[in-house]
Amino acid sequence: xxxxxxxxxxxxxxWPNAAHSRFVEAGGVRWHVQVAGAGPPALLLHGAGGxxxxxxxxxxxxxTRFTVIAPDLPGHAFSSAPSDPSRxxxxxxxxxxxxxxxxxxxxxxxxxxxxxxxxxxxxIVADGTVAPDIIVGFNAALAAxxxxxxxxxxxxxxxxxxxxxxxRVISTIARFDGVADSLLQSTGTSLPAEQRLxxxxxxxxxxxxxxxxxxxxxxxxxxxTRAIASITTPTTFASAPxxxxxxxxxxxxxxxxMPAARCVALPPAGHLAHEVEPAAAMDxxxxxxxxxx
Length: 293
What we know:
By secondary structure, the protein is of the alpha/beta class. Helices cover 41% and strands 15% of the residues. The protein has helices at residues 8-11, 58-62, 90-104, 116-126, 147-162, 166-173, 179-185, 193-203, 206-218, 222-227, 248-255, 273-276, 278-289; strands spanning 21-26, 29-37, 41-45, 67-71, 110-114, 134-138, 235-239, 261-265. It has an eight-stranded mixed sheet with strand order 1-2-4-3-5-6-7-8, with helices on both faces. The protein is globular and about 45 Å long.
């Protein structure tokens, strides 16, 4: 897999919370991870296609209460991809995150994930790797695509993931004005200019694009859907009512199968609501902590 990814030396001065960044080796991945604050450990996992910048304004708030651990997922942004592309899957990434936690010597009490990151966290819990006190998912992507969507899109995704040079072509197309912005617009979130610039840079990174499409090609939540009913950890799913990528009804349907899950509403700010409404996201986390048992 190509390693033409973003250069940290070029982005360090423009990357949110860079003072807390470090690079460590674990599970065959060279991780970019941010560790900040003091208190009970809290693990943050961004969604597919994102990076630690997704927590730009929420991480400092959380760091006043927790020791926050926020990595770039394998292959994303500044973290390297595993040598085996099959590791870019729900189970594989859960195992690699577990290796990172073991290397850091931290056992998170609070798990916070966005979109596909929430699914990875639930897989980690279902695997028995960690036993947190609470789980929080923002616009959590837990449902499998419809059979029609799967049949229509999966062959193309697999072709892109497995064909040399295609990721480079896609990242080149993303350099044209408006391409990355159109994708961001489809999330229903209105991001500030500096955050759009970071997403645009990710979309122009062949290594990042390759990892994202490989992740999509390998993604399978069917086993997680079967295991999720066994998760008894108090779980809060927070969804924006206008999220076009993960409609709240999908999250509510999955949450109904979990014995200790509840759903709450975020402001109507789209799929990336936690990025533009960090105070509301922090309230969700604190509400999950104070939730009666």
